[in-house]
Amino acid sequence: MTADQAEEPTRRDFLYIATGTVGAVGAGALAWPFIHQLNPDASVKALASIEVDISAIGEGAAVTVTWRGKPVFIRHRTAAEISAAGEVKIEELRDPQADKDRVQKPEWLIMVGVCTHLGCVPLGQKGDFGGWFCPCHGSHYDTSGRIRKGPAPNNLAIPEYVFLDDGRVKIG
Amino acid sequence: MSGHSEFQPTSAPVKWLERRLPILSLMHGAAVAFPTPKNLNYWWTFGGILMFCLGVQIITGVILVMHFTPHVDMAFSSVEHIMRDVNYGWLIRYIHSNGASMFFLAVYIHMFRGLYYGSYKEPRELIWILGMVIYVLMTAAAFFGYVLVWGQMSFWGATVITNLFGAIPLVGDFLLSLLWGGFSVDNPTLNRLFSLHYLVPFLIAGVVVLHIWALHVPGNNNPLGIDVKGPQDTVTFHPYYTIKDTFAVVMFMIFFALFVFYMPNALGEPDNYIEANRLSTPAHIVPEWYLLPFYAILRSIPDKLLGVIAMGIAIFVLFLVPWLDTSKVRSARFRPLYKQFFWLFLIDALILGYIGAKPAEGMYLVIGRIATAYYFLHFFIILPVLGLVETPKPLPESISKSVLDKSAAGKAA
Amino acid sequence: MKNKSQIILRSIVLAAGLALLPAAAQASEGVALKQVDWSFNGPFGTFDRPQLKRGFQVYKEVCAACHSIKFVSYRNLSEAGGPQFTEAEVKTIAAAGNVTDGPNADGEMFERPAEPKDRIVKPFPNDNAARAANNGALPPDLSLMAKARKNGPDYLYSVLTGYAEPPEGVVMADGMNFNHYFPGQQIAMPQPLSDDQVTYEDGTPATLDQMAQDVTAFLMWTAEPKLEDRHKLGLKVMMFLVLFAGLLFATYKRVWKDQH
User: Is the Cβ pair A16, C73 closer than 8 Å?
Assistant: First the structure.
């Protein structure tokens, strides 16, 4: 009897801990489907790329298309804009990046039109640097879409894209 | 409920909270220290199982709403979107659709347990009535939810059920247009049922709180049906019944999971995988299994209004059970006659369920009518009369004595 | 102890009885279907991928002339648990269909080849067009057909192989065909499959029986595309729950030890 009692607590504790642990593991595993359902579903993922016909966009003009629920600016830049973007000293930038790293063809600037501050859509050809200006909190972007002034931390994002031929680009 | 709590806060944050909102001592009194008869059997675990069911339905339901579109043109395809595209959408939807059946299975067991052990008798009448309110709300929620899928059974079930209200004299047509928001079951109907389907579970949760509150005034009934005489008859709810209920819930989950993973559509109607078509009614319309007994009663009366009234009474009579049963003895263990009639009634309910799934013709109609008659006979004649004529067996002195006798007998054997 | 296990047993029997009553009530109706030992039956069932591919071929070359599978997208054909065509194959399959897209910059709708993201192209633009082309009868969408009938797969297989000459004395309505397994035994759809109707790429002989099984398996997949996921997850969940229940039972007995 006494031997039994001495042994008892450890055996009992082990059982309780094992049961509790298994229960916790189960609860954790159960949570995953309920969290994962919030992620983009298969039909959303299937729409992840679009093709845009850019043959009709003249120099100095731009179109805005919707990609993954966000605006994408496709701007046919003028020679002046391209040279202005190229002349900027990279080391002075908040988010240093050369213009040539932001485009595949210098005349086509393709970027996600969402301000990196809090997600508003910047206005084109406005602001102190001839690029974009965000009306929400006054971020200024240059002709390469780089942040130059205001609260935004980063340059406007460049999506993945490929030119399918001279007239069409596939975004995403 | 109060008076049992020996909750003594020790840590400073708990003391701080306790002075301002004594919720922890309330919880402690209700779910930890609460004295519970020590002789409750597994039938008493269905209260906990039902709490689990309600939680499952609310959580999965809230998630399904994130992906569902309540519009006649899109409801059906949004359900298919959930089944095909949403991550684990098939799992969550199958849990929710089978969860409704599991909920009803558990509630019927819970109700029949109450009937067998006389849990509705003085002083527990209100617990039973609140439980019946929950049951009626459950059938409403289940019906609303079934319509949302917008399959053939959804649409025609909604048409048939709403038309029942059209049978009410004078105001029938007025009620119908209120329910439909149009001239037939249509988009406005779907939208309002969607809204109500989201509302009702929270009403249920509210009534559940009242149900448990009312339970904690006299405390649990028990298989002997005799009152608790003192602390020797009870154990604290925690850990004794928390562990037992948890075990029972997990056993129930195994049964539940068998349906979700291996026969997710066994309890549903194939016709509901056909999108609603207002020009073509399915060959036979049947409600989900848990409503079949009442459906059988409805159909066994060959008059629209009387059928609806009979079905209404069939549900309403359950509210009156605490007064229809005239016996002072609670548990059927000590009521030899009632015990027989209890099983007869259970069989009758099963027969009604079987008949409800059959076409209303020939022998089925005859059997359905006999079973319907017996259903009412049970409540209106048998229950009141039995209490007056039956001689109950002698009741045990106390719960603890009975438990001791039993374990002694067990050891001897 | 004996008493308790009896109670549990009784409750299981009761629960099963309650659950199965309506099902049992309906199983007794209608002509007994031919039963096939499907690969997807049972708790460990999976789809037979070559069979799904063959079934898709039968659907595409035969059924798709009249029947849509509107809830299925081309991309589904390459997803796990299905026929698992390669993505390149799916692109080729999709490109054979045309979808209306637009409006373009000029405000015009235009036709383009279907892409994997598109739903599988329907044979008719809408139900009325389908009726008009089919003598007034609407060929139903087949996406969910395997779940929209009792014992769906057996039913589909039975109907597909159940055509016969009408027996003596049976008067057929105009344009109807005799089928043992179709409710009422008169079906508007003429016998769709006959031996060697398609030529399988994998060399399987295209007998009526083979094609009927293949296309039925394919339609079971279109109805229940997550069946394999479900069976796989089910096994894990069951093993976990049984283990957890065992531990809880032991804990329960230990907690109650001082009370008995």
Answer: no
